[in-house]
Specification:
Elements (H helix, E strand, L loop, with lengths): L9 E4 L5 H11 L3 H10 L2 H18 L2 H19 L16 H4 L8 E2 L2 H6 L15 H9 L4 H7 L1 E7 L2 E8 L7 E9 L8 H15 L4 E7 L3 H9 L3 E2 L5 H6 L2 H5 L12 E7 L1
Length: 279
């Protein structure tokens, strides 16, 4: 692990030049998540029952116990990989349902989040080093001529990057504002070299501070179902799991909280756990 000076981290909006780096960071951070979700679904009682029925039928057709057992499992795994929602962030190189180009910031000056560690240390973040473009000229021309309407940009949400000395260390994704006062974190990723250094906490708390200033009163975070690390992380920074830890509070709360549901996949099994925090 590499030591990070948190008071030197700049958190800014993603630009078009950062898209490929962000994709690579997401692919690295979500490695193995897809397989863990598929294994979770395959081991559910109803799914095991369906696989057993299909295997029994195939046993009469193929006259092979091994083929009758493996074919249904193989086909189901392929089906789950194809239909797995891209919002899970487990398909790495492909663009998820929110639009990276629409999420990119095109202002003349960087839009940044406030770093609370700077006030504590009294230091100001370093300016980033100029970074050479990796993309080809044709690709730059294609992205620059792509039309971005205000509606598309609004639907894409925001992508914020943690950067230090020109290197992108992590990113956080905030979904578009569909309800007044409600914000949703749909992905939080830090580079494997900079984990357990407080970057994730810094990104979440800085985003919370900004959204609170815009009138938000609650933030939801959707965490992949088998992710124990994500679950522990959000609990440590003050989030509560919806429907598990706060039954009494939910009964007295408004309808809005009851409408927030985890994302579901094959046979209705939950793919995410929902956490929330009142600002």
């Amino acid at each position: 692990m590499v030591r990070v000076e948190l008071d030197q981290v700049v958190m800014r909006r993603m630009k078009e030049d950062d898209i490929e780096v962000v994709k690579a960071l997401i692919k690295e951070g979500c490695e193995g998540t897809e397989n863990r979700i598929i294994l979770h679904i395959l081991t559910r009682p109803m799914c095991l029952f369906i696989l057993a029925v299909l295997s029994s039928v195939l046993r009469c057709l193929v006259h092979s116990f091994i083929l009758a057992l493996t074919i249904p499992v193989f086909l189901l795994i392929v089906f789950l990989k194809i239909t797995m929602p891209r919002s899970m962030g487990v398909l790495g190189s492909s663009r998820p349902y929110w639009d990276y180009v629409g999420s990119s910031y095109r202002g003349t000056q960087d839009e940044t989040l406030q770093n609370p560690y700077c006030r504590v240390s009294g230091r100001t973040p370093m300016k980033k080093r100029p970074r050479s473009k990796i993309a080809s000229k044709d690709k730059d021309k294609e992205s620059s001529t792509e039309k971005i309407s205000p509606e598309r940009e609004q639907a894409a949400g925001h992508v914020w990057l943690a950067e230090c000395e020109g290197e992108i260390l992590g990113c956080i994704f905030r979904e578009s504002e569909t309800e007044a006062g409600i914000r949703r974190i749909c992905r939080l990723v830090t580079s494997c070299w900079y984990r357990k250094e407080g970057l994730g906490r810094l990104l979440v708390q800085s985003l919370e501070q900004r959204e609170m200033g815009t009138g938000a009163h609650r933030v939801y975070a959707h965490v992949p179902y088998p992710s124990k690390v994500g679950e522990v992380f959000f609990k440590k920074i003050g989030y509560r799991q919806l429907g598990v830890e706060t039954v009494e509070e939910e009964e007295d709360d408004d309808i809005e909280m009851k409408l927030e549901t985890p994302e579901r996949g094959f046979l209705g099994y939950p793919l995410t756990k929902v956490f929330y925090k009142n600002l």
